[in-house]
Structure prediction request, 474 residues.
Amino acid sequence: MKKIGILVRKTEWKERFADILCTFFIVAAASLFCLLLNQAGVMKENVLMVFLIGVLLVGAFTSGYEYGIIGAVVSVLLFNYFFTVPVHTFAIMNPDDVVLMALFLAVSCISSGMTARFRKQAAIAEENERAARRMSEMSEKFINVTGKEHIIELGIRYIQENTGYRASVEIYGDDTGQEEDETGYIIFPIGGILQKIGELKVFTDDNGLGSEQEIFIRAAAGQIGIALDRELIYSEQEKTRLEVEREHLKSSMLRSISHDFRTPLTGIIGDCDMILASREADKDEKESLVKDIREQSMWLTRTMENILSMTKLESGTDFIDRRQEVLEDLVYEAERHITGLREHRRFQNSVPEEVLMAEVDGRLLIQVIVNLLDNAMKNTEEGGMIRLSLSFQDQKAYFVVEDNGKGIKPGMEQQIFGEFVSVSEKSPDQKRGIGLGLAICKEVVEAHGGKIWAENRLEGGARFTFWLKAEAAG
Prediction:
């Protein structure tokens, strides 16, 4: 602030020196012109009018009425010295000359004062226009800015640019506000629609504020309050929308669970009734019924695991239990969880020769592979091709599950990883699935620091790929 004060004083001295030079040159020019007119025989009364014009020009081109008065006094002295009898002296013999010079001095002082007043009013009007333009620009900026941090940053920047003072904003109930230990500040309230929501501190180092600076800062505080209020209202609306959407998702999940659980349970009960009713049935028939019961039960188990996993994901708790695992073992374990994978589909698997190790949650990773294989089973016909491959490149283990089914509907490659979204059109097995499997895959893979994506194969069918950080053992 001391440097700013020194700069201001230097600027003021420069302006004063420029006004003095301007006054000197105007009075000197008027005097020379008057001498020329006098030599041409022009009467001294008319010559005095030239001095009056010079005084008016001084008032028009300088910043204060005092320069006009100085110019008027100097002009009277010059008029007395060069144009009144006796010339080249300051003595006055003719009383008319005294009255003439007195009237000239009075008119010059009045005109200088009026000219200075007009200049001041014009300067005030110009400054008001600039202030209005700055406030209009600031209002437009606040309309487009979003986010509490960005709103506060914008307000502080505008205050510093237009007043030269630093500022900080404290929002009531917000512990993340800026901590300032300095003294010498002025507090301005930040008001919301119903109550004050914070305060604005402007650090002036006890130098005080000008009226224009105070007006601008109060306007900035008002704009900050309006923008923060708008942000708060939007945040509340967004929370309400998310709550409504969450309730809708819960309702959809409950409807899906009640509908999808009914089918396998009905099948299980029907198979059990058939076994009980046909005690004399042959061994193959009973074995087929038992396999069907087991398949339906395994599907119910996988569905319940998906529901429990999604509940943990949405609760925000840390659900990852990392341990060093052999990835090939997890692949083989996942294959055993899919009933009929090799019996009803042309299944192929491929794993690298080296042993791959990764620090992962083995149970959740098995669930990811099971969900992808189960998804491939649903979207391929009897005897369709399903391939599972594991590869290692650039310290990453790549898992690929692909099939030759109907593939993914164009434009749905990203959306299918959302909750309650099905991959393909209706199929014979579409009754099985509430749309949580792929959403869980995405959450689990990303929680491990990896990435998962889906695409259609050129040969037909879908391909799901995900990678995790791994290393080759030995």
